[in-house]
Each structure stands twice: as C-alpha cells, then as structure tokens.
Amino acid sequence: MNAPKIALFCNVPEKAVISLKDVDSIYKIPALLKSQGLDDYICKRFSLDCPVANLSEWEQVIYEEANPEGEVTIGMVGKYVELPDAYKSVIEALKHGGFKSRVAVNIKLIDSQDVETRGVEILKGLDAILVPGGFGERGVEGKIMAARYARENKIPYLGICLGMQVAMIEFARNVANMEDANSTEFAPDCKYPVIALITEWRDENGNLEVRTENSDLGGTMRLGAQPCHLSGDSLVRTLYGKNTITERHRHRYEVNNLLLKTYRRCGFTYCRSFS
C-alpha cells in the first residue's frame, strides 16, 4: 500500500491511512489496526482521554484459536444451510466455545430435508448434533429424525427454539407412545399437542394477557428477558452455577405443560421452569 500517495490524493494525514488486509481470523483485526496506530490517531483526533489499549484478552483468543488441543465435529441440522450466514451467531458461538475448551470445532451443515430423503446415515461420525431455530413445516420431520438419532445413539444434542421443540415431539412419539404428537404450528388438530401456542401469561404489571390464533403475530410472542428457575441437581444448573437465570425469548409456541407428567413417567427430566 502506498500510504503517502493515498494521503496526498485523499487530502488526509498519512497517519490516517490504515491498511486493512485480509487475515485468516477476524480476531486478528484489532491487533492489526492497533499496530498501525489507529486507536491513538482517533483518540488524538477527537481529543479523547483514553488509557493505553490492553489487547491481552484478544491475544489470548488468538492463541487459543491457533493452538487447539483437540477436535470435534458438530452437525448443524437446519433448513437454511445453503445460506450459512442465517446461522452466523450460532456458528460463532460454537467457535467461541471451542476456543475456551481448547478444541477446534468443525461444523458440518446438514439440510434437514436431506435427512428425510437420505436417512440418518448422513449423521454418522458426528460428535454432537445441534438443531437451531426455524419457521415453517418444511424439513421438520428431518429435524425430528436427527433428534431421535442423537437420543438413541447417545450423541450430545442441543436444540435451540424449534430444535428444542422437535426433541420434545420426538420423545413423545417414540418414548411416551404419543404417536400423533406434534406442534399445533404444523398440525393444529393433532391428538397430542406437545408444543402449542402461548394463549395466556402475566405481563410485567401482573395483568393477565390473552391471545388466540387470530391475534396479531407480534402480539402472540413471548418477547424479551424471562426469569428461569433451574433444578438444583441438573446439569444445566451446574453449567450456569446459579438457581435462577434470565434468558431472552422470541417465540409463539411453548411446551404444553399439561403433558409434562406423562413425560416424567417415561424418564424425561424437566429441569427448568418459568415464573
């Protein structure tokens, strides 16, 4: 890069010309910018009184990414795998977990419709399965098949939003003998509505809110942070290290609590509840 020439023709100081080259990891970019004095230039340009930048945490992330001590392959079974950026936040979260655990995370994107047509053979060789959220009926049966494969083969499974819901449906069908189990999102008249529309809840003022299938879509969602109480002897309680947590929600359908007793009789562990 010819910084003096760029500075001349752009009418800016040479120190204001910063090269942002391609790197093999986005986590190297802050150090790359700092090495060219970008932080100092901005602070001086806007008369900001800032301490010297400490990139030790960034450097640790870069080191952990470059020096894994193991390797895992996680299959992500979804319906938007042709557009992997649809799962960008989930993919990055898996990578971050890998950094902290000092393992390289290989993510295999699997179309849930391929599971339906080709069978669960395409899931072999995975160390874990993740089914992320999604909308609509397309590919749902493939996600249910993936959940069953994980359960029967004792493969760690993480279901997020719809991914959790299909795991509930799978358990109901194949363990609790609820053959017609489904979500009312896909089968409104199913015999066992394991997942159903949220019809009522209390708002922040304690007032009862009521919704129906005909209500405005946004009005039928549980939105924002919700307190969640964890069972004391559960794995998730151990992971969080506290009895009550707060997590954000954005969904219209939830587990049908009326069927939880049947689940428990079949060995299902339900380790969280909401206020």
Structural class by sheet pairing and helices: alpha/beta
Give the CATH level 1 class of the domain at 68-174: Alpha Beta
Strand content: 15-25%
Q: What's the rounded overall pLDDT mean?
A: 89
How far apart the termini lie comes to 59 Å
Low-confidence stretches: none
Radius of gyration: 24 Å
Largest β-sheet summary: 4 strands, parallel
Instruction: Indicate the percent of residues in helices.
Output: 25-40%
Query: Would you list the SSEs in sequence order as H and E?
Result: HHHHEHEHEHEHEEEEEHEEHE
Instruction: Please report the number of helical segments.
Output: 10
CATH architecture of the domain at 68-174: 3-Layer(aba) Sandwich
CATH topology of the domain at 68-174: Rossmann fold
Domain Glutamine amidotransferase: 83-259
Catalytic activity: UTP + L-glutamine + ATP + H2O = CTP + L-glutamate + ADP + phosphate + 2 H(+)
Family: Belongs to the CTP synthase family.
GO cellular component, one term: cytosol
